[in-house]
Amino acid sequence: MTAFALRGLLGRKLRTALTAIAIVLGVATVSGTYVLTDSINNAFHSIFYETRAGSDAVISGKAAFDVSSDTGATAPSLDETLLTRVRALPEVADAEGQVNGQAHLIGKDGKAIVYGGAPNLGFSIANGASRFNPLQLVSGRWPKADEVVVDKSTASKEHLQVGQVVGVQAQGPVRQLRVSGTVKFGSVSTIGGATLAGFDLPTAQQLFDKPGKLDEIALAAAQGVSDPKLISAVHSVLPADAQVRTATAQSHEDAKDTDSFISFLQKFLLGFGGVALFVGSFVIANSLSITIAQRTREFATLRTLGASRNQVLRSVMLEALVMGTLASIVGLFAGLALAKGLFSLFDAVGFTLPNNGLTLETRTIVVALVVGIVVTLLASLRPALRATRVPPIAAVREGATLPESRWAPYRLPAALVLTGIGFAALLAGLFVPDLSTGQILLLMLGGALLVFFGIALLSVRLIGPLAWSLGWPATKLGAAAGALARDNSRRNPQRTASTASALMIGLALVTLVSILAAGIVSSFRGSVKEIWRNADYAITAQNNFDPIPIAASDAVKKTPGVTEVSDVRAGEALAYGSKIGITAVNPSAAHVFNLDWTEGSSAVLASLGDDGAFVDKDYAKSHHLTVGSPVPVTFADGSQELFNVKGIFDPPTGGSPFGRVTMSTDVFDRHNPQPENLYSFVVMHGGQTEANEAALDKTLKSFPNAKAATRQKFIDNQISGLSSILNILYVLLALSVVVSLFGIVNTLVLTVFERTREIGMLRAIGMTRRQVRRMIRHESVITALIGAFIGIALGIVLATLLIARVDFIVLSIPFGQLIVFAVAAVFVGIIAAIFPARRASRLNVLEALQYE
Which of 97, 201, 687, 698 is deepest in the core (most CB within 10 A)? Predict the structure, then answer.
């Protein structure tokens, strides 16, 4: 039977290849995800560990809690005198201090050089020849006073030459520095879209407004001194707001946020690989079901010759095993190409990532092969069991078909139960309180899978009416060929439903994503219009989300025509034992923002003082706060303040720019040594005019990383990042649509084999080749439209349930996009029909009439 199974596969090369493509694409997604994330992880870890390669220990500021990067909260800086005390320790052979922060290089167009969301890193280089310096000099020399070295990649992209003067903006206005050299980072081939700017220590301290301060001190142990002994010795001279770690421990700490991001990215991308495999399982099961139905007499002959049911089962499963193994191997290596494509995709949307070459781990090989083979075997199990039910007598019957399973009468009740349980699980995951994150994800994932299975089974009952209605245009456009196509779609509802279900899943997810995105955009627009009271312009970073120096706001306040400037700062703090987002505003906020106050009024914004704060409604409810209630807040520098609640507001659906607790900027600045604005809102005489805009642009020339935007432009800028994310999502979801496309191709090819004599008869009685092609094409389009109709409807239902649970999104149906999806389904059907239609039209009439 083994030889028989293998010969069967070789005898059906086209059918096998088309079926295997589904698993190839799914495995490629899984493999490509692991290769991509492993490559990013290795590149980042090379950066972090090479940074500390020359150090044995590192001293840094000690925050009162674990501060996240890019939140506005930072660990306290070190006093420069600490470096002298550390160097005096006999256990220390060498020590070097450094300051760092965000430093934007300014391009020839006068704007900050920013590549997507990548960081713009600035740092001091006390001694280029130091063992602590991870950079390699490519050209020129290390920087001296009023000089800068830039990374080779940025210098190449922006045509920066050694000796050229370039603008650099950090905490204050732009400073003009001379490029003394170009550098590269260790062994990493590319650091992504990040820019590097290195300065001597005094220049860096001036740029980052840290006179007499250091952010960290790198240490080298004296000969024979172990790491624990070094750490112990350094502890004796450390102030309370400083800490020391080994270089390895510091590298782990540096990589913590990145590791979390990569872990999320990996799970996120693997989810799309799972979707592709899930869709592929439908394609495999449907394709094998068709081929087994077509091989009824073949299996019956085997049974007549003495083959047992188990032997037939093993034969079919062996075919699936061989096909799954080969497809998984191809998919594994296709994943390498996909990983390169994903790097390019992220680069295209401005999300350039570090790369040190593709990494293929053993884990990737094992997981990709196991997943591909297991999914193939599971998908082939039901068709294989059907093959065992072929009776021997079918060998002598003309047109024999597989007998119905004894479970067939229960298909409809089972579909209803599965769908009901699936929706119940989804509702439980969304609305049952006090569930853990793992429980929520398990309920939602399991519920979604059950819903998809249930709807796929229920769709059999819908094929008749849907094919009749959606196929009506085909009868008008294709005449007799269109009418035959509609009848063919209704002839075998189970087959049509299985084929349409693969496309249904992909389009349901695409619809879900598009509705959620439309809801987020609609909510955000509504909230900005509701909160934005009198402001004429918003000052934000060039990339729309980086913080901007307070000096930019101070300069704007002096601009002719400006009457009010309201700043919003953001950071992190501890309150009631939990880390929360905090914000700060100046008194001008009372003239800018329109908040829905449940307690208090806009006057609160101007009268916060040294001990006042306002909170949002949900935070007040969860901690039983009212006006006058005390709120204890611990800042990153370890200091504590007790604030009195002066107001409680109800944020609009789309959210607000304020954190859980909002205080005055004066208090915020006392506890955050490097405060920056997230936004600044400007009121000007005359409102929005060309003259006012020109005046702001003139002021902001000294701060190229900042820009002024009207309310509409501010909204468009803020949601532009969402558009980039959506483009990535659509590309990833397109993989499942491509898998379903091959499912339609495979089904049509197999039905052409099955209807060879029928097509020959049609050709014999006068049907032209063009009409045959038209018939197959219309049948494909009808199947695709059925999948699109069910998928879009299901996507709307799922999105509605999700939005009902999420407070900050309103339901907004993007009808234009849904129409585009339906039209795209028609094109999928047309493309899928090209090869099967050509094959059908080229059948030899006499050979077709003799085909069995």
Answer: 97
Using DSSP, state whether 638 is helix, strand or coil.
coil
> Residue 539: which residues within 8 A CB-CB, separation 6 or more?
548, 552, 553, 556, 677, 679, 680, 681, 682, 696, 700, 706, 707, 708, 709
pLDDT at 401 over 80: no
Counted domains in the chain: 4
Pairwise CA distance, residues 368 & 333, whole Å? 10
* Band (846; pLDDT cuts 50, 70, 90): low
In this structure, the answer to whether residues 667 and 785 fall within a common structural domain is: no
> Within this chain, do residues 650 and 681 fall inside the same structural domain, yes or no?
yes
- State how far the Cα of 56 lies from the Cα of 247, in Å rounded to an integer: 5
Whether residue 709 lies inside any domain: the answer is no
Single residue among 203, 225, 255 that ends a domain in this structure: 255
Would you say residue 560 has pLDDT above 70? yes
**What does the block give as tokens for 19?**
């079926």
| Same domain for 232 and 175 | yes
The predicted structure's pLDDT at residue 589: 92
525 close to 818: Cβ distance less than 8 angstroms = no
Whole-angstrom distance, CA of residue 230 vs CA of residue 170: 35
pLDDT tens, 236-248?
899 988 999 998 8
Predicted model pTM: 0.81
Q: Are residues 239 and 266 in the same domain?
A: no
User: Are 618 and 585 a contacting pair, CB within 8 Å?
Assistant: no
Asked if the structure places residue 542 within a domain, the reply is no
Question: Domain range for residue 391?
Answer: 1-55+256-406
- Integer-rounded Cα Rg, in Å, for the chain is 33
| 356 Cβ contact list (under 8 Å, min separation 6) | 39, 42, 43, 46, 187, 188, 189, 190
**C-alpha distance from residue 330 to each of 22, 337, 363 (Å):** 11, 11, 17
650: three-class secondary structure by DSSP = coil
**Whole-number Å distance between alpha carbons of 647 and 598:** 8
Cα–Cα distances in Å, from 65 out to 75, 375, 678, 796?
Answer: 9, 45, 22, 42
Summarised one tens digit per residue, pLDDT across range 192-236 is 778 899 999 999 999 998 999 999 999 999 998 999 999 999 998
> Would you say residue 536 lies in a domain?
no
The C-alpha atoms of residue 485 and residue 799 are separated, in whole angstroms, by 33
Structure tokens at 639: 């200091």
